[in-house]
Amino acid sequence: MDGNLEDIRLLEEIQQGSQQSFELFYEKYIRFILHIAYQIIGNKEEAEDVCQEVFLELLQKSFQYQPEKGSVKAWLAVKTKSRSLDRLRKKKPLLMNKLEALVPEKESPLDLIFLNEMERHVLIDALNHLPEKQREAIYRAYFQGETHQQITKHMKKPLGSVKSFIRYGLRNLRKQKSLVKWMEAERGWKE
């Protein structure tokens, strides 16, 4: 049986109250959901809390899945991403809101949007671990397209300092484990 058809059948049985179907669905997707939440949040305990929220919502609102919008797996990925972002927004509202506005969400099919979003959120998390001046200089240069001269005016720093912020910020980004792990071929959940 096709994987998505099996998932749809399980969702229908969950709507009808089948504990066994919920357990099968849970076992099939717990690691997938946990991996997504952890990649976005970067904290195992909070990622586990997001998993609980996603599965609780699934129990209460499994009828919300719409097959014409994508696979069950993509639906879960988007739902997990949304819950994870809600947690991040509570902690890092300013940078998240600015960076989220950079990528339109309706240009690709749901599965491609999910992959693009995952990559973008890994980058956002990495940027949030940089010192503030490095993060601002990189954000202005690469996301707002400002020249070094424009950045010096906004940051009120000499040109040499701005170039150093960018250079050291990029070096620090290259060292971050979250970016290195994302680029690795194996993207499975690692404990």
TrEMBL record:
<dbReference type="InterPro" id="IPR013325">
    <property type="entry name" value="RNA_pol_sigma_r2"/>
</dbReference>
<feature type="domain" description="RNA polymerase sigma-70 region 4">
    <location>
        <begin position="126"/>
        <end position="175"/>
    </location>
</feature>
<dbReference type="InterPro" id="IPR007627">
    <property type="entry name" value="RNA_pol_sigma70_r2"/>
</dbReference>
<dbReference type="InterPro" id="IPR013324">
    <property type="entry name" value="RNA_pol_sigma_r3/r4-like"/>
</dbReference>
<dbReference type="InterPro" id="IPR007630">
    <property type="entry name" value="RNA_pol_sigma70_r4"/>
</dbReference>
<dbReference type="Pfam" id="PF04545">
    <property type="entry name" value="Sigma70_r4"/>
</dbReference>
<feature type="domain" description="RNA polymerase sigma-70 region 2">
    <location>
        <begin position="25"/>
        <end position="92"/>
    </location>
</feature>
<dbReference type="Pfam" id="PF04542">
    <property type="entry name" value="Sigma70_r2"/>
</dbReference>
<keyword id="KW-0238">DNA-binding</keyword>
<dbReference type="InterPro" id="IPR014284">
    <property type="entry name" value="RNA_pol_sigma-70_dom"/>
</dbReference>
<dbReference type="InterPro" id="IPR039425">
    <property type="entry name" value="RNA_pol_sigma-70-like"/>
</dbReference>
<dbReference type="InterPro" id="IPR036388">
    <property type="entry name" value="WH-like_DNA-bd_sf"/>
</dbReference>
<keyword id="KW-0805">Transcription regulation</keyword>
<comment type="similarity">
    <text>Belongs to the sigma-70 factor family. ECF subfamily.</text>
</comment>
<keyword id="KW-0731">Sigma factor</keyword>
<keyword id="KW-0804">Transcription</keyword>
<protein>
    <submittedName>
        <fullName>RNA polymerase sigma factor</fullName>
    </submittedName>
</protein>
